[in-house]
Specification:
With 94 residues, the chain is mostly helical. Strands 1-2 form a two-stranded parallel ribbon. The chain has helices at 3-41, 81-93, and strands at residues 42-46, 66-70. It has one domain (3-93). The chain starts with a helix and ends with a helix.
Length: 94
Amino acid sequence: MTIRKTLLVAFLSVGLLPAILLASLAFVKAREAVQAEIERNLAIQATGDGIVHPEAARAPSAPNVENVTVAGSHSGLGWNIAAIRLIADRLARN
């Protein structure tokens, strides 16, 4: 390996690697916090869900908990526009 490649590898290892790891850790922590907040307060149920029983999809009643039913299927919730709007609205509130 040439000195140029050795210096480049050393620079990337010492300079960029910690920054990448810290950014990844921050992203994971932020995502976990957002997920926890949504999971505590919002339960979305699909009307055509043939996988999860309707009662199992409902969160226990509490003052800040909202159970919402949207048209769609279980596997389609990830790109269901109504579900995405609900989540975006709840994130905007927090």
